[in-house]
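Weekly structure sync, notes
Attendees: PL (lead), two postdocs, one rotation student
Agenda item 3: pending single-chain targets
PL asked that the sequence for the first pending target be pasted directly into the notes so everyone works from the same version. It is reproduced below exactly as submitted, 116 residues in total.
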Amino acid sequence: GGQEQADAFMMEVDQALTRAELKGAIMSFSEVFRHEGRQLGLKEGLERGLEKGLEKGLRQGKLEGKLEGKLEGKLEGKLEGKLETARNMLIRGMSVATIAELTGLPRHKLTALRKK
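Predicted structure, written out during the meeting:
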């Protein structure tokens, strides 16, 4: 088990290593642990950063989606209003040119609207 390994390690240290070699071995172990700790820290930091970035992106996307939806709704509403006004003008006999000028709608749309 763990104790046997520790005893074997200590026996090797006593038998084979000089002070300089022992210091080098300890420094090597320290560097390995420091490297592994750094790698673990980077991995955890990356995971947290990705998670927070995803949350922020989702919030921003929802807000942008709501804004775009409202804008599209307003634009569609304005267009429907102009089309309704143009229909009424056509019914009353106004010219396509005059209606286009007053509503800002293109003539081809008004011509198509007249055919309906």
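Discussion points:
- The helical segments are 2-16, 19-91, 96-103, 107-115.
- DSSP finds four helices and no strands in the chain.
Action: rotation student to compare against the earlier draft before next sync.
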